[in-house]
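Q: I'm building a small set of examples for a reading group on sequence design. Run inverse folding on the following structure and report the sequence directly after it, with nothing in between.
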């Protein structure tokens, strides 16, 4: 099929541009230097952000609610100091020694090191409704009358004020049961705040695990964990304060570790930064070694890397100007784009050496190379860019920024090769370099090559049938493909601070990171608490709410009336001895009414926001790694109706995670469909025909179907990050079909020549792409690791298809079928 006129024009202009660059290398290299300096300056302040909140658009309600929460409520999360490896007495001593020092730090709001168990235990009866206290008193009085009757069967009437004589006959005492009353208060917020790790260990005011020999001290910073600079500052201040103590006094095995939201953010950020540096370095070394093996020339490797480096520096300069930071996905794009971009350099340089070894001069060889291969490289980059750009329509910022940067990156890298590669070749020629003397196909063992091609020709019908069956069979596995809702793909739950955080939650008895509902009045607060309790009760075991905390719950109403009832109970027990076990202690009857200021400081401070408004804390019972649970929990705490008829929602990280889940699961199919339509349209416009476009797309689409089938057979699931592999595979592999078909369409081109020469370049290009994704596979982050692994698997599948099955399929087409000798 003849190339469209505009394609011929483009090829000719690219050839002329290459000639100009070859003739005036210093001008073009000066331009390269200026662009590199500008790009490097813009990229210098580029930072890494691992904050999940920034992966959602600012317009999302959950993001706006969280920002409002931070503004009105103050810092969220804790820095937790965990002392371990000492006796209980020494651990308590460490806690008491440390707390006064931490409270003096200017960036600390307060320090919580004691659970309010004693206070709430002493005042427990005030948290019962007045009607229930009255019912308890009524049952006690009834119990007294029944007991007297049983002890005095001939007594017809007694004076209620007369003191009854205690009886030593316990088996005649009537039953006294309050279980139905106290069951209603089983999961009250007050009870959960006062909960101990293990009631069998006895009443303990400290966050102490005696069996594990650990004690926790919770530090509430004034700033936010999302502010990485502040998080590092406050952690350093806490560590310095701890180090002022003589830790040896607490025992030889005593040690201190740190966790909490601020520490987790720092560790996650550091891990991703280490992964980017280490894995990108490893990928660069592997890429370098492979190119040395491929070209057998260090100069050839240098001129392939040079335009790549210029392009990458300029790309990240644009990223710095546009976004100012990279996220957990785009941080690895340097290695990925390096592997993808260098593929075009391999194609161009291999074709140049092929022309040059035929005896032509360098200038003519460069013109022919960029006329024939430059256009194909630009089309392939354009098509791949549109594929990646389909991700740019995603509202999930990790996908959006990945797609936009990858799209423009692919185009800029190819342009860098088209503009600057001839200039570098010109400089090397002036220095006397003659280039590697690659053997021309006729100098190679023709018999071996012909035998290989003849085998492919003979077996092509069988490979074609196998290919069709493979693609059709892959469709049947689509129904078995499933989605992994585990949020550990977004955060590495195996980091030490994440593991310790779960241990601290067990010691405390509830989550350290509740979601918050901001309310404007006590009436609104009580309405929210009431609604949440009703929803929790309605969902039963399926509810994601553990318990609800609010000032209205912690500061009971009608305390004076309740105190009067308790005094009547005091009088009762002074006159009657009860041997039946009671769900409360008699000393609790002597507790006095209390005010907000008398609540334990550790509890009162949790409900003290910056603006003094009221709010409700909702503690979740589900794990952050349970995506489905997070999704259901988010629905459960949204749309809370106030007395005014207004609806409000809770704010917090679980709702951010829930929105990410909704977004990815909703957008995933559309992103894939958009990628396929975008690449089809781009190739149709570029190649001038739908049939030609679909032909070039066959290897990429077949690779995607086979990868999905492989995942279904081996039970590999998509998650929030590795679902990106589908458009990525299309974008990374579409150029192979374009290069191969375009080479076959050249006038007088032999199939065998195109197959072996283009096949070698395709093999080299795909291998460098694989090396780029090695950076992700070597990452410790589970989501990035799975994305890298699946990308490499998809590229290997494509390698087999494009070098074996696709050529065999083309050999059956009359227009490509060799006539006469194959070589």
């Amino acid at each position: 099929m003849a190339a469209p006129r505009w394609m011929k024009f483009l090829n000719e202009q690219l050839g002329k541009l290459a000639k100009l660059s070859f003739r005036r290398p210093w001008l073009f290299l000066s331009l390269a230097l200026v662009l590199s300096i500008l790009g490097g300056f813009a990229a210098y302040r580029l930072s890494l952000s691992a904050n999940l909140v920034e992966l959602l658009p600012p317009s999302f309600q959950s993001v706006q609610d969280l920002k409002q929460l931070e503004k009105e409520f103050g810092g969220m999360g804790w820095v937790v100091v965990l002392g371990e490896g000492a006796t209980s007495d020494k651990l308590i001593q460490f806690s008491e020694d440390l707390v006064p020092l931490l409270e003096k730090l200017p960036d600390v709001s307060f320090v919580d090191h004691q659970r309010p168990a004693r206070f709430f235990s002493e005042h427990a009866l005030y948290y019962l409704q007045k009607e229930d206290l009255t019912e308890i008193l009524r049952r006690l009085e009834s119990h007294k009358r029944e007991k007297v009757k049983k002890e005095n069967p001939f007594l017809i009437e007694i004076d209620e004020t007369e003191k009854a004589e205690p009886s030593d006959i316990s088996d005649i005492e009537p039953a006294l049961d309050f279980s139905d009353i106290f069951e209603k208060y089983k999961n009250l917020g007050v009870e959960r705040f006062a909960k101990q790790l293990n009631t069998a260990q006895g009443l303990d005011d400290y966050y102490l695990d005696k069996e594990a020999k650990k004690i926790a001290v919770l530090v509430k910073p004034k700033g936010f964990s999302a502010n990485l600079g502040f998080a590092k500052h406050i952690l350093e201040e806490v560590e310095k304060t701890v180090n002022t103590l003589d830790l040896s006094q607490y025992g030889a095995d005593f040690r201190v570790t740190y966790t909490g939201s601020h520490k987790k953010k720092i560790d996650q950020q550091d891990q991703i930064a280490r992964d980017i540096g280490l894995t990108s370095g490893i990928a660069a070394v592997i890429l370098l070694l492979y190119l040395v093996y491929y070209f057998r020339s260090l100069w050839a490797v240098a001129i392939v890397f040079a335009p790549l480096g210029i392009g990458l520096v300029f790309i990240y300069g644009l990223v710095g100007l546009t976004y100012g930071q990279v996220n957990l996905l785009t941080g690895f794009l340097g290695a990925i784009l390096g592997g993808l971009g260098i593929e075009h350099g391999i194609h161009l340089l291999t074709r140049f050496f092929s022309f040059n070894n035929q005896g032509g001069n360098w200038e003519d060889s460069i013109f022919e190379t960029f006329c024939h291969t430059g256009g194909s490289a630009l089309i392939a980059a354009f098509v791949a860019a549109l594929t990646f750009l389909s991700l740019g329509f995603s509202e999930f910022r990790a996908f959006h920024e990945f797609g936009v940067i990858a799209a423009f990156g692919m185009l800029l890298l190819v342009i860098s090769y088209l503009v600057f590669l001839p200039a570098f070749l010109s400089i090397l020629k002036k220095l006397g370099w003659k280039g590697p003397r690659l053997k021309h196909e006729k100098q190679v063992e023709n018999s071996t090559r012909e035998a290989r091609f003849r085998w492919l020709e003979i077996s092509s019908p069988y490979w074609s049938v196998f290919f069709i069956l493979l693609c059709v069979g892959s469709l049947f596995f689509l129904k078995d493909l499933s989605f992994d809702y585990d949020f550990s793909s977004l955060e590495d739950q195996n980091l030490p601070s994440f593991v310790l955080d779960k241990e601290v939650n067990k010691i405390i008895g509830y989550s350290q990171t509740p979601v918050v509902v901001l309310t404007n009045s006590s009436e609104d607060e009580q309405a929210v608490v009431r609604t949440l309790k009703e929803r929790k009760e309605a969902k039963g075991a399926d509810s994601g709410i553990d318990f609800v905390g609010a000032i209205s719950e912690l500061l009971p109403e009608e305390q004076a009336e309740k105190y009067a009832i308790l005094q009547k109970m005091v009088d009762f027990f002074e006159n009657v001895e009860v041997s039946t076990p009671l769900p409360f202690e008699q000393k609790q009857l002597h507790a006095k009414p209390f005010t907000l200021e008398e609540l334990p400081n550790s509890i009162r401070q949790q409900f003290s926001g910056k603006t003094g408004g009221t709010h409700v804390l909702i503690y979740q019972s589900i794990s952050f790694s349970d995506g489905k649970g997070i999704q259901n929990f988010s629905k459960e705490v949204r749309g809370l109706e106030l007395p005014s008829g207004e609806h409000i929602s809770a704010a917090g990280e679980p709702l951010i995670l829930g929105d990410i889940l909704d977004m990815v699961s909703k957008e995933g199919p559309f992103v894939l469909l958009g990628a396929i339509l975008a690449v089809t349209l781009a190739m149709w416009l570029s190649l001038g025909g739908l049939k030609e476009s679909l032909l070039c797309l066959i290897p990429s689409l077949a690779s995607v179907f086979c990868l999905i089938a492989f995942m279904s057979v081996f039970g590999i699931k998509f998650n929030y990050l590795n679902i990106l592999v589908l458009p990525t595979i299309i974008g990374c592999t579409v150029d192979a079909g374009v290069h191969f078909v375009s080479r076959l369409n050249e006038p007088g081109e032999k199939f065998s020549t195109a197959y072996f020469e283009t096949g070698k370049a395709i093999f080299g290009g795909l291998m460098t792409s694989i090396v780029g994704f090695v950076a992700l596979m070597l990452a410790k982050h589970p989501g990035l690791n799975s994305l890298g692994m699946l990308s490499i698997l998809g590229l290997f599948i494509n390698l087999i298809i494009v070098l074996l099955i696709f050529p065999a399929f083309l050999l059956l087409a009359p227009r490509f079928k060799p006539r006469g000798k194959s070589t």
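The longest helix spans residues 261-295.
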